[in-house]
Design a protein that fits this description.
Shape: globular
Strand content: 5-15%
Oligomer: single chain
Order of helices and strands: HHEEEEHHEE
Strand order of the largest sheet: 1-2
Length: 127
């Protein structure tokens, strides 16, 4: 799929990108934690999980996501921050993707590798 086609895909609001319990300890997990530093603070959306299981570094959850790891919804979807609304194929992501496609001929969206319900899971971007 081209980047333009990927940008036409609608978010299915699965919530997989909203918490570390839904992302593995992969690039996606570390990336998502960076969202926490951007959105965090006393009134931030991203909240650390203090009693996370052993081995879960930087565990977090989004305070706007209501539900559990199996189902839920974003209560701030219509007013979600740019960091959330640009995931995974808009804004700065699009620039990075275009650069990778130009260099390598294709680009698999690594940020969705562990987000199995995500509308963009397994998508490979081609020219």
């Amino acid at each position: 799929m081209t980047l333009a086609e990927a940008q036409l895909v609608e978010c299915n609001r699965c919530g997989d990108c909203c918490g570390s319990e839904r992302v593995g300890l992969t690039v996606a997990g570390r990336y998502a934690w960076r969202w926490g530093r951007v959105l965090g603070g006393e009134d931030g959306l991203i909240l650390p999980i203090e009693d996370a299981p052993a081995g879960r570094i930087n565990a977090f959850r989004c305070s706007a996501f209501q539900g559990n790891a199996d189902a839920g919804e974003c209560t701030a979807y219509e007013r979600r921050p740019l960091r959330c609304s640009s995931f995974p194929v808009f804004g700065a992501h699009a620039v990075d993707i275009a650069r990778e496609v130009a260099s390598n001929g294709e680009y698999r969206l690594p940020l969705t590798d562990t987000l199995f319900r995500c509308a963009w899971a397994g998508v490979v971007i081609v020219p």
